[in-house]
Amino acid sequence: MTCTSIAASRISQSVDGEWSLTFTVSGGIAGLNRTLQLESSGAATAIDRQRTLHVRRQIARDDVSEIERFATAAAAFDKSGGDVCRDCLTYAIDLRVSGRLVRIRATDITLSDSKAAPLVRALTRIQQRLLAEP
Questions:
Q1: What residues are paired with 23 via a beta bridge?
Q2: What 3-state class would DSSP assign to 71?
Q3: Strand, helix or coil at 35?
Q4: Which of 1, 36, 60, 115 is the most exposed place for a label (fewest CB within 10 A)?
Q5: Domain, as residue range, for 20
Q6: 3-state class of 122 per DSSP?
Q7: Partners of residue 38 on adjacent β-strands
Q8: Which pTM was predicted?
Q9: In sequence order, what DSSP letters do the residues of 55-83 get, joined into one string?
Q10: How far apart are CA 86 and CA 84, in angstroms?
Q11: How would you classify the pairing of strands 2-3 and 100-107?
Q12: pLDDT (0 to 100) of residue 100
């Protein structure tokens, strides 16, 4: 796969088909280390390495549609370094669409500069919900 800085409009043309993504949240005061793997089919795997918790579920089609909608607005973005913020969360999204890899990297400080903030919020909600379920 190639890593590319595809413009948001080019992503939106491709997200309608099959896609997969990996979303990682790390850092913060609590030292989070969580991952969410999600596929266009709705198959989801959430991992919390601190609690050694691994959850696999099928998420609702509405959640998948929301992620697709936000992913169309997101573009490649990498502002994960440079800003000193020891207590900030770091967000990493690897979105695989049509043989391309779109990488989004941000921190609490730089997230608002990206078009990925709604996508990060939606993925965080799904991740937290999965990890909270019995």
A1: 36, 93
A2: helix
A3: strand
A4: 1
A5: 2-132
A6: helix
A7: 21, 44
A8: 0.83
A9: EEEEPPHHHHHHHHHHHHH---EE--SSS
A10: 6
A11: parallel
A12: 87
Tell me: the pLDDT tens digits for 111-131? Answer: 887 788 999 999 999 999 999
Q: Among 117, 25, 125, which Cα is nearest to 71's? A: 117
List, in order, residues 6 or more apart from 14 with CB less than 8 Å away: 97, 98, 100
Instruction: Evaluate whether 43 touches 83 at the Cβ level (below 8 Å).
Output: no
pLDDT over 70 (residue 25):
yes
- Give the tokens for residue 27: 């850092």
Please name every residue paired with 114 in a beta bridge, in sequence order, or none if there are none: none
Number of domains the chain contains: 1
Phi-psi region of 101 (alpha: psi -120 to 50; beta: other; left: phi over 0): beta
DSSP notation for 15-28: TTS-EEEEEEEEET
Strands 32-39 and 89-97: unpaired
61, 55, 132, 134: CA torsion to nearest 10? 100
Output the pLDDT for position 78. Answer: 65
CA dist 4 and 100 (Å) reads 7
Q: Once rounded to an integer, what is the mean pLDDT over residues 40-49?
A: 97
